[in-house]
Design goal:
Blueprint: E1 23-24, H1 34-41, H2 43-54, H3 59-76, H4 82-116, H5 119-130, H6 134-152, H7 157-168, H8 173-183, H9 191-204, H10 208-223, H11 226-235, H12 237-241, H13 244-264, H14 270-288, H15 312-333, H16 335-348, E2 362-364, E3 372-374, E4 383-384, E5 388-390, H17 397-411, H18 418-449, H19 451-460, H20 466-481, H21 484-502, H22 506-517, H23 525-534, H24 541-570
Helix pairs in contact: 1-19, 2-3, 3-4, 3-18, 4-7, 4-17, 4-18, 5-15, 6-7, 6-8, 6-9, 6-11, 6-13, 6-14, 7-8, 7-23, 8-11, 8-23, 8-24, 9-10, 9-21, 10-13, 10-22, 13-14, 15-17, 18-23, 19-20, 19-21, 20-21, 20-22, 20-24, 21-22, 22-24, 23-24
Length: about 575
């Protein structure tokens, strides 16, 4: 096995190592050259980009092709045993189906229930009663309401729910999907009750609050402009400026609360409180202020007379499925409740499953757990690579969404429609489910083979420019995995090790991984597949949506890279400092 070339030029404190475990990572398999190895490691990503952006293939075909490419590179170039490569891909696919696809499935099923019972028409009327302007509807649903769903559930649910709502309101499905993907950048770093930041803390060993504060300081700088950005994309500069008061109210209320909560309370409630503040402010603005001109969509019919107002009871019953969604997700996210549910699930798990030593409902992946050794400089010392699959099927956010759907069906007196809704939802999402499973299989195979670490190390070799390229690392991680949580788990420690070697504040680079990583969410293949399925488009539209979002994703990632350089070299005192242990 070829030795690893030290990309830190001897500044890694002499972290030498000897082979450990059954199979050991080698991050420079091509003659010890990091550059050549990185080029080969990037082949699956190149295949993915070519199939989506040039050959315009459906996402499921692109994902499967990239997975096949990664398998060949892992086995033929990296020397990964075939059995480990197969198990890694299956492990990733399983994670893609649960919990990620499960959340999407349950969210779309809830939406179909609202549509099939006619309640969504009343929801449309209630949103229309706030404003007839399509720009304000998009900002309210895609940004404000979508941010709340991100904070409560995450993992694709915001794009699924808000995208379906906008399409149901009459938006062009393509632009509904694109707007929701753009809007979803602002809250992702604190999504799903702050899981990305807490995961980052666990992986890096850094305290949660400094990381939360730094992520919030960077994300707030972007969040304040996202409402304006998505309306400029949707309607152009001049039409966007016609609703400038609403844009300012939306961006400032969300970003201001995001900054405050992340810095002084922690990551768990950042999205929830920020989005609720934004929703309240937006409702007040829409009640007290009207734009001078009303923007319509192409094909909208002129409004000759208003529909009769709905009673309070009708409005409550129409919004009731989504109110139940919020209640169930928040209850399921409450730590004390979650622990009790997990204890129950743990107790009924079959005894033959190899349960993990740490945490409830963790199952060791047979044949993969601790069968691979990660080595410096990715880790501080040689360490086995764990493979734990979490079977928290009852406490998962998707289960909360599903129970909300069942409860709503009972209260709406249509329980007999549940089976039909389930089948219809599966038929709608079957290709999206395949895409999600394939992409997570690709991500996990690249992780466990060492290919992703090779790419990260190549970017880490940029020296003083690393704060900018640390944004690229996080962006790449979210693009591959579709999850800021997974990207933090993947690259968080690499960011810290590199920062320490280069004399940078590790809190900054670790936080950049999360804050800049969210810009990759809009181009992640599984996010695009979810958006296409939620808005009723066909698989042929996925490549077009990827081409639409890629330029915005790269631009915003570069902006975050410049912000990272600003914090690193202009105002380093604004970055929290963690005293050495």
């Amino acid at each position: 096995m070829s030795p690893i070339v030290c990309v830190f030029r001897g500044r890694c404190a002499g972290l030498c190592y000897k082979p450990l475990g059954m199979w050991q990572h080698n991050y420079t398999p091509l003659g010890g050259s990091l550059g050549l190895s990185a080029i080969v490691a990037a082949l699956p990503i190149v295949v993915l980009f070519l199939m989506l952006g040039v050959w315009r293939a459906p996402t499921w075909k692109a994902a499967l092709s990239a997975l096949a490419t990664a398998f060949v590179v892992a086995v033929a170039v990296y020397g990964m045993p075939v059995n480990l490569a197969v198990i890694s891909a299956i492990y990733g696919a399983a994670y893609g189906l649960f919990p990620i696809a499960w959340i999407v499935f349950a969210s779309i099923m809830l939406y179909r229930l609202a549509v099939d019972t006619g309640k969504f028409e009343i929801i449309k009327d209630s949103v229309g009663s706030l404003t007839d302007d399509r720009r304000l509807q998009a900002m309210f649903i895609a940004f404000s309401f979508g941010a709340f769903i991100e904070g409560a559930a995450g993992f694709g649910a915001p794009v699924a729910v808000s995208g379906a709502m906008l399409a149901g309101l009459g938006f062009n499905p393509f632009y509904a999907a694109g707007i929701c993907l753009l809007a979803n950048t602002a809250p992702v770093a604190f999504g799903s009750i702050g899981i990305p930041v807490t995961t980052l803390a666990g992986v890096t060993g850094l305290p949660v609050l400094p990381l939360s504060a730094m992520v919030g300081r960077m994300c707030a700088m972007i969040s304040v402009i996202i409402p304006a950005y998505l309306l400029v994309v949707m309607a152009g500069w001049s039409r966007a400026m016609e609703v400038l008061p609403a844009i300012i109210a939306c961006g400032v209320s969300f970003a201001g609360m995001q900054f405050y909560v992340s810095n002084y309370m922690g990551p768990e409630l950042t999205d929830i409180l920020s989005s609720l503040t934004c929703i309240v402010v937006m409702v007040a603005v829409l009640k007290l202020w009207k734009p001078g001109t009303i923007m319509r969509l192409e094909g909208d019919k002129p409004v000759t007379n208003k529909a009769l107002p709905h009673s309070a009871g009708e409005l409550f019953m129409a919004w009731m499925p989504y109110l139940l969604l919020v209640l169930f997700v928040l209850a399921w996210g409450e730590p004390s409740i979650k622990v009790q549910i997990d204890r129950f699930t743990h107790g009924i798990m079959p005894s033959f499953l190899p349960k993990a030593a740490a945490g409830l409902n963790g199952v060791e992946v047979w044949g993969l757990h601790n069968a691979i050794t990660r080595v410096p400089p990715v880790t501080t010392a040689p360490a086995p690579y764990a493979a734990i699959f979490t079977l928290n099927w009852l406490s998962a956010s998707g289960t909360a969404c599903f129970l909300a759907t069942l409860t709503a069906a009972l209260l709406l007196r249509v329980p007999h429609r549940v089976v039909g809704l389930y089948v219809a939802t599966f038929n709608q999402l079957k290709l999206a489910l395949l895409t999600i499973a394939s992409m997570l299989g690709l991500a996990y195979l690249m992780n466990y083979s060492g290919m992703t670490s090779t790419l990260g190390l190549a970017l880490a070799a940029t020296g003083v420019a690393f704060p900018f390229f640390s944004a690229v690392v996080g962006w790449l991680g979210v693009f591959l995995t579709g999850s800021d949580t997974s990207a933090n788990a993947l690259f968080g420690n690499l960011q810290v090790v590199t920062a320490n070697a280069l004399g940078l504040n590790p809190v900054l680079t670790a936080s950049v991984n999360s804050a800049a990583g969210v810009m990759g969410k809009m181009i992640s293949v599984q996010s695009i597949a979810v958006a296409v399925a939620a808005t009723g488009m066909t698989s042929e539209d996925e490549g077009r949506l990827f081409r639409f979002t890629i330029k915005h994703s790269v631009l915003l990632m570069m902006v975050m890279g410049v912000v990272a350089l600003f914090y690193a070299y202009v105002v380093p005192g604004w970055v929290p400092v963690v005293p050495p242990k």
